[in-house]
Amino acid sequence: MRKNDRSRSRDHAQTDETRDHAQTDEARDHAQQGEVRSEADIGGAGDGAQIGEARKMAEIGRTGLMVSRLGLGGAPLAGLYQGVSDEQASRVVNTYLDHGPGFIDTAPLYGSGVSETRLGAVLSERVRNARVFCDGRGSFVLATKVGRLLVPDPARDQDVWSEDLPPVGPVFDYSYDGTLRSLDESLARLGLDKVDILHIHDPDNHYDEAMRGSYRALVRMRDEGVIRAVGVGMNQAKMLARFSQEGDFDCFLCAGRYTLVDHTALKRLLPLCEERKISLIIGGPYNSGILAQGAVEGAKFDYRKAPPGIVERVRRVETVCGRHGTPLKAAALQFPLAHPAVAAVIPGARSPEEVDENVAMAEFEIPADFWAELRQEGLIPDEAPTPG
């Protein structure tokens, strides 16, 4: 991050006239008590309206930064598995934000910058139009990631991305300077002066480098007020547990390791996060699709074809869903949110209809007997908290 950019970010953080990054004093007071608050509680909805789970807010760590418990993952906006147009991506983001204050996650990796660019087109316009405080809608908290730089690569592999990508490809760089450069480039793609949360992205084989470089840079930016929270985003729980013990982190993005059918994070990572007041953000709550589509032919789990054991487990969960009139998607979104260490889930969406469905599923009333039967059938662990 260049010095003038850092100064501009600090100034923006102090004035913050067009974004709802700084919460109301009342919200911060309750955040210090570790409460989950609804938008109505902090002045976002009047007339005593009932607020569902999708519009409740939770604090990130001890930062006072409040996020929507139902976020929006930015990978599908860049064509993950299936193409999405610029116009369609714009409609997705606007539909999501029209439901209330938003929490949006993206990364340079997602479509080689396409996700950030498409999000920026919408978010920067909302900032320019100063819509944030007009009707209690449109405000957002934004997270992106560091650890990969995009460099010219005309022959790059499409990998899991369906859209035609820019002629650039990602290279790992967890150095101090590379981290500052990564944020600079993300801000340029986003057309914004700041982001709220920065995650060190996928340092599976780069732990030491990430701690020496990216971590130091992010802590400095947090200390200077450039960002509000420091995190790590990974598809594994074991290394996140190590980060929790060796650094001062506010949040972790854990993709796919605490879901309705994958409880890997429950025994070690989640207790550590709860003990150290590190907020867990659950990415991939549908486990790459199988918890949205069900146990159908070709369903994906963890970015690949679901193995037979997972397919059978999901089939058994679906049977219990059927007996209790509970949609599989509703159970998938609500299960991780019951754990006190979990601040938010961030499913993706490719259409406004999927956004609306995610909101409806997060607010669907699931009977207590459903969770009791899942536990009785050995489909969720005895120690896993459940909603209600």
Describe this protein's structure.
- By secondary structure, the protein is an alpha/beta fold.
- It has a single domain, classed as NADP-dependent oxidoreductase domain (TIM Barrel).
- 38% of the residues lie in helices and 16% in strands.
- The protein has helices spanning 3-15, 25-32, 86-97, 114-128, 176-190, 207-212, 214-223, 238-246, 269-276, 290-293, 308-324, 328-337, 352-363, 368-376; strands at 37-38, 56-59, 66-68, 72-73, 102-105, 140-146, 148-152, 168-172, 197-201, 229-234, 251-255, 279-283, 300-301, 304-305, 342-346.
- The strands form 4 sheets. It has an 8-stranded parallel sheet. Strands 1-2-3 form a 3-stranded antiparallel sheet. A two-stranded antiparallel ribbon has the order 7-8.
- Strand 4 (72-73), helix 3 (86-97) and strand 5 form a beta-alpha-beta unit.
- Helix 5 (176-190) packs across helix 7 (214-223), helix 8 packs parallel to helix 9 and helix 11 (308-324) runs antiparallel to helix 14.
- The radius of gyration is 20 Å and the shape is globular.
Number of helices, where a helix is a run of at least 4 consecutive DSSP H or I residues: 14
- Rg, nearest Å: 20 Å
The residue-averaged pLDDT reads: 87
Overall SS class:
alpha/beta
Largest sheet: 8 strands, parallel
Query: What is the count of distinct domains?
Result: 1
